[in-house]
Amino acid sequence: MAEIIRVNDDTWRFEDDGVRFFLFCGTEKAALIDTGMKVPDAKKLATELTDLPIMLINTHADPDHISGNAAFDAVYMSPDEEDNYRANGGTGNVIPVREGDVIELGGRPLHIVDIPGHTPGSIAIIDEKNRVLVSGDSVEDGNIFMFGERRDIDKYIESMRHLLKFTEQFDEIYAMHGSFPVKNDLIEKLIEGAMRIKAGKEEGTPVDVFGKSALFYKFPYAGFLCDIK
Ligand SMILES: [Zn+2]
Questions:
Q1: Most buried one in 76, 101, 111, 201, CB count within 10 A?
Q2: Which residues are within 8 A (CB) of 125 and not within 5 positions of it... i.e. 6 or more apart?
Q3: Could you tell me the residue ranges of all domains in the chain?
């Protein structure tokens, strides 16, 4: 059972055993942003918090972010994420959103930024009204999964640099794992860490993650789990 915490008058966060997702309300509509790992009734829980019609947006479609998706007929996500979504059993129609698109909840525009790398269609969402960035798994101070299929550390670095162009539009970052919230300066630290890994300047520790071997790189500000070369 997810713990539900009110962030402000029109924002809730759901804490689902190491995974986080959000309910954002405007004046006309509400949006669930992801549906967690073990919360098939996420939509029902959200309807207890708001009377507004609820849409679903996914930052990306790894299995720990889509557990309540089946309750929705449609999900807003990057079209580049649909293969990952279907591979993880994702149902319903995908309504494609791309960088520059705005999802309007009523007095609360949500701006989409493409940040591929963690997954092919990872997106970040700028909540202009609250000056918040929702970062999915790409900016967080836990362990960022960059091993296995569909991950791309070069694209990740490029995307984090791209994200720096938007930092004047938000004061804090809501991530789906790790601390809540995190600060904007984490983005630059993650770029530095990922660059050092890519350049072979860091020694990774071999670890087993869900039966697969990976290399773990621990920095003071976050960790990365990467493929063994
Ligand atoms: Zn995740």
A1: 76
A2: 33, 57, 59, 110, 111, 112, 113, 133, 134
A3: 3-202
